[in-house]
Structure formats: C-alpha cells, structure tokens
Amino acid sequence: MACKVSLTYSGLMRGSDLTLSYHGTPVVHAASISLAPGQVTALVGPNGSGKSTLLRALARLHKPDSGSVVLTPTAGSTDDTVDAFALSHRDFARRVTLLAQSRPTPSGLCVRELVEFGRHPHRGRWVRGDENGAASVARAMEMTGVADLADKQVDQLSGGQLQRVWLACCLAQDTDVLLLDEPTTYLDLRYQVELLDLIRDLADEHGVTVGVVLHDLDQAAALADVVVLLDGGRVLASGTPQQVLVSDTLSAVYGIRVDVETDDATGHVTARARGRHNSAARVIRTS
Ligand code: ADP
Ligand code: MG
Predict the structure, then answer these.
(1) If you take atom 23 of ligand 1, which residue's CA is the nearest one?
(2) pLDDT in tens, 207-218
(3) Is 87 part of a structural domain of the chain?
(4) pLDDT tens for residues 5-23?
(5) Is residue 128 located within the same domain as residue 42?
(6) 259 domain-assigned
(7) Per-residue pLDDT of the chain (287 residues; tens, 9 = 90+)
(8) Does 261 reside within a domain?
C-alpha cells in the first residue's frame, strides 16, 4: 500500500462529557476525547468497554444523551468551531469518515463502484461536478493496494481484500478526520503492517486527524501518539503509550497479569499477557 498522496488536511475533533446509551441504559459515561490534526489517537480497552460506541458517536452515528462533539475549522478556513450534530449530512461527511467495525457486503458492485461511494459528499445531484472524484478514487485504490481489483465484484473478495476496499472508500472521501474501528481485522501480516504505515503517513505527511480502535496493544504502542484506555465505558487513562500502557493498570483492566517492557533506547512499549502457561507469553489483544 504505497502512500503517494497530495492532499492537505487539518482539523481537530473533540468529544466532551459524552454519555451514550442503548435503549436507555448508559454504556459510555461522561467520556471526553480529543483527536488532534497530524496525530494518531488509539482507543484500547477490553471487549464491551465502549470503544465502538464512542467512535460511532464521534462519527455522529450514535446520538449522545449528553455531551458534545465539535470540529475546529480546516487550516486556512475562516469558519468557527462547529457542533458536529449541527452540520448538514454532506458538510459533516466532507470532514469526517468512519471505517466501521462491521458492514454488510453489497452485491452487484465492482470494487471501483464501491470506492466511488466515498465521493458522495462531494457530488451534487448529478455525478458531474466532482472534478477531483476520479483522481481521488484512483489514489485511494492505489494507497490501499486494491487498484488491481478495480473491476472485480466485491462479493467475490476475501475478507482482507474487502477490508482494504472499504478503507479505500473512506480515503476517497478526502476528509480531515479519519475514524477507524479495528481496521486490521481480516488483514494478513503484510497488510496489517502496511495499513499501520499508511495511517502514520496520513497523519505525518498530510496532517490527517486519526482516531483508531486497535485490538493489539503493541500495535497501538508502536503507532499512536496518544492512547486512550477505556474500561466499563469510562476513560481510565489518556496520554502517551508510555504513560497509559502500564503493567498494573492493564493487569487490573484485563483481569490477567500483563507485563510491560519499555525499550530504553527507543522508548517503545511492549505488553505481554501471562496465561497459566507462563512460558508462553502472549501479545495481548484488547478485543
Ligand atoms: P467495544 O467496541 O469496546 O467492544 P461497544 O462499544 O461495542 O464495545 O459496546 C459497549 C457496550 O454496549 C457493551 O456492553 C455492549 O454489549 C453494548 N452494546 C453495543 N452495541 C449495542 C446494541 N446495538 N444494543 C445494545 N447494547 C449494545
Ligand atoms: Mg468494538
């Protein structure tokens, strides 16, 4: 997945005091999270800790009981900070995209047609008018390594190929903010590594604001500028990987002994969960 893009992005997203419920039962409690331009913020935490629900609220797909989601203007813009829920569907979709954790697989579409759906907020009533559309779609397919699959039917793809096509759909949207819910799911080792590299490049080279749920603490430690640890629907800790990925905290949150090692030379953090067979230390996954 080569990263050859010529986009310029910028935009800060902040969720404040978000309480989120299903059928009247709160599952996220007064959670606050800030996603900064050019930074990767990783959300980690056990199964059911509220990561997806929080990400969906940032993406305006889950209406908060209370709290707010705001967006600061794109660099060079004269706009004020805006309430995300006050924007039109199209204006919001021009600024924020979400790669959701689960999606239905459409049938009767080829890869290029699915990626073209990412252009929907940039189109008027007619397809014409989206001058950058074809270039954005081609670039997104190249970045995610699916250009060769352009004419293939999406219901004939492997899980990993389809995951990359959905990511291409998000990138074709050309947004300031990129929200990704467990994007490495289904990907083999090579594409996991390339996807993480691509996310880092988008943040570093193009100032994209990235919020990503990762199910691998080592990947979060290696990729993220900021790690947000959720437990029971609350933000338990937020800071650098070194600040948040702490043995005692993780052991308490996951209910299993977790050893954390820090490489003195690089500062890189590695987390290992210890099972009953202690000699077989396992890299832990958060969901
Ligand atoms: P995570 O992504 O961290 O695994 P989720 O945000 O999916 O957690 O879920 C948080 C809590 O909300 C869990 O207790 C889960 O069971 C509950 N939940 C998630 N989706 C629904 C739903 N559609 N209806 C009811 N409860 C839900
Ligand atoms: Mg989830």
Answers:
(1) 22
(2) 899 999 998 999
(3) yes
(4) 434 445 789 999 999 999 9
(5) no
(6) no
(7) 544 443 444 578 999 999 999 999 999 999 999 999 999 999 999 999 999 999 999 999 999 999 999 998 766 666 678 899 999 999 999 999 999 988 888 889 999 999 999 988 887 665 566 777 889 999 999 999 999 999 999 999 998 899 999 999 999 999 989 999 999 988 899 889 989 999 999 999 888 999 999 989 999 999 999 999 999 999 999 999 999 999 999 999 999 999 999 998 888 899 988 887 754 455 555 55
(8) no
Does residue 23 lie within any of the structural domains? Answer: yes
Q: What is the CATH number of the domain that holds 27?
A: 3.40.50.300
Structural domain for 126, as ranges: 106-173
Maximum C-alpha span of the chain: 62
Cα(29) to centroid of ligand 2, in Å? Answer: 16
Q: What is the pTM of this model?
A: 0.90
Residue 4 and residue 87 share a domain: yes
| Residues, CB-to-ion distance under 5 Å, ligand 2 | 52, 101
Do 159 and 189 lie in a common domain? no
Best mutation site among 27, 49, 61 for ligand 1 pocket (most ligand atoms within 8 Å of CB) = 27
DSSP per-residue codes, the chain? ------------EEEEEEEEEETTEEEEEEEEEEE-TT-EEEEE-STTSSHHHHHHHHTTSS--SEEEEEEPPPTT--PPPEEGGGS-HHHHHHHEEEE-S--PPPSS-BHHHHHHGGGGGG--SSSTT-TTHHHHHHHHHHHTT-GGGTTSBGGGS-HHHHHHHHHHHHHHT--SEEEEESTTTT--HHHHHHHHHHHHHHHHHH--EEEEE-SBHHHHHHH-SEEEEEETTEEEEEE-HHHH--HHHHHHHHTS-EEEEE-TTT--EEEEE--SSTTS-EE-B--
